[in-house]
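Reopening this ticket.

The earlier resolution said the output was attached, but the attachment link was broken on my side. Pasting everything inline this time so it's all in one place.
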Amino acid sequence: MEPVVTSCGGCGKAIRIRRPEVERRRECPACGTELIVPRPGPAASRRPRRRRAMVGAAGLMELTLLMMAAAPLAVWCAVAWSTAASASPPWAGEIRLEPTALRPELAVGPAAGANEALSSLVEAAGRLGPAWRFARSVAAIPDGLAMAGGATARLAWGPARRAFRLLPFVQDGFATAARGDEIAGSPANVSPPASVLTPPDFGSPSAEDVAASSPVESERRFLLRDESGRQVVARLHGCHEGKAVLVLPDGRLGIPSMLVPADEPFRPLSADEVAEDLLRGPFEGFKLHRTEHYLILHQGEDDSFARSNGLLLEDLYARLLAAFRKHEVTVHEAEFPLVAVIFKSEEDFRRYRPVAPDVQAYYEIYTNRIFLYEEPSGRRAGPEVDALLKPQMTAHEGTHQILQNIGVQPRLAEWPLWLIEGLAEYCATPASRKGQPAWDGLGQINNLHMATLRELEDPVSLSMRGQDLQTKSLFRKPGQPLVEAMIRRGELTPTEYALAWAMTHYLAMKRSDDFTRFLRVMAAAPPLEPRSADDHVRAFRQAFGDDLGKLDRTIHAYLNRLTKQKGYDPMPYYAVLFEQPLANGLLRRAAMVSQSPQLIKQWIGEMSNPAAGLPSWQAAPFPSRARADLAVREWMQSN
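Inline output:
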């Protein structure tokens, strides 16, 4: 049957139906009204009429009348086609994105019930982190640590990766075609039906085809409407399997349901405009502390914590730019204002996003913001360790944010996890200044990680003291070099965070020329381009040589030399005392001695029984292992 044209009963738009004989429900792509498709009437009972040949004057007149009758219909169809390409229809540029709970084990990929049409995009993008396995990076405080999105993040207190699911409804202000009451009334844990990515009857070219029509990367721009209904120009960030990720004027990333090319230039929002949108939107009631490059949102009148973090982040920003320029790595100033959100309490922090209990800070790759809190919960134990890690967490997440905004690490680019987290740890060494926790700049000896590595009987084989299999190591094949095993890792334990730092520290300090060339190659990686573990190993061998076993031994010797260098300050020995009430009324008690806060937190997580009562623990520092062992024995005997 020939295609037919019908009119929408809601908005009056002309819709072309290609196959009217197919029985199915059809909706207007503009307003969603069900379409009524005209059907052919019953076969005529009279005899078929013989058609006259169009010849002679009568035939020409008949043809002229036919063309005059068809002209209005042609104009009508042309208007319908031009309307489909305009920015006016509400479906002409919807962004579909909603972050799920930030759980370290979900190193990005679509959650159950997510739009299957976008699953391949998330899966391919999603090994950043964990920087991604999509959205890149959530910082976590271990328990075995995990992750930001981000693409997508695990540390000894370490950034754990966050997961995102791509849905027709959105959280935190991403644009959508749904009406306001639908957004407000849609529970975040319910997956709406899969969204229509292109108009069902007119069709749409793929993201790659549309992008290829623009000869210059910076000219690939598209129209869409943001959450407030404003029409904005977004820039193409990357494509994968027919889906596109766009950069919005405030620096966020979004996935549109349809691409509408634009001729207008892309204009990033100013700091004033971004601040106004944030304070009127998701962070209404927050206070603003501004620095040269940062918008720091905080709760309460006291801005001392925001100011101290602003100084740290600006110092980190300046040092990173200077370091990369010194080594002739191409960098640029951040295109968008960098946003940090500080919640007053841990409860508010966790209420904003349902994150894992040990996540204390994270960088959210899609919103391009870092999140942290000022005051820990009263239930949190180990305040000495947490206080020491506080500046490190800010510097670690700040490093992720800065590197992805100055051109070193393209957002959503597929980097190996050891490099993502190794660089962040290299830049986030904690220190103590006048008895207070502080940040000590780039490339310093990380005493926390050195303590973790010293807890290993053999750093090359990663055999850990004690018999607990879960803390023993990294999975690698017999005879496989440790460096290769690290390159292939998709998740990092606290020990592996320390090893990622050790690899990065050695390469940056002793193989700086090779490391710089390696970073230039990684910086050229296109966003959303899938890369396998074999690809990462191949790139590493090309940069640093084929003999990875020899590199293992070299790094081991380098770490031993670090213990004798100025700047190495051994961590104290902690006597860790643990108690947890059991369901039968008994009290479970345990103790350990360690120099490594990371391993202490991992051990606490392994000792805690989720089915029992609330565990409590304390870590008391001592100058020697013998003194710490004595304190543990006395505590065990006295109770």
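Reporter confirms the inline version is readable. The first strand starts at residue 4 and ends at 7. The CA atoms of residues 207 and 242 lie 5 Å apart.
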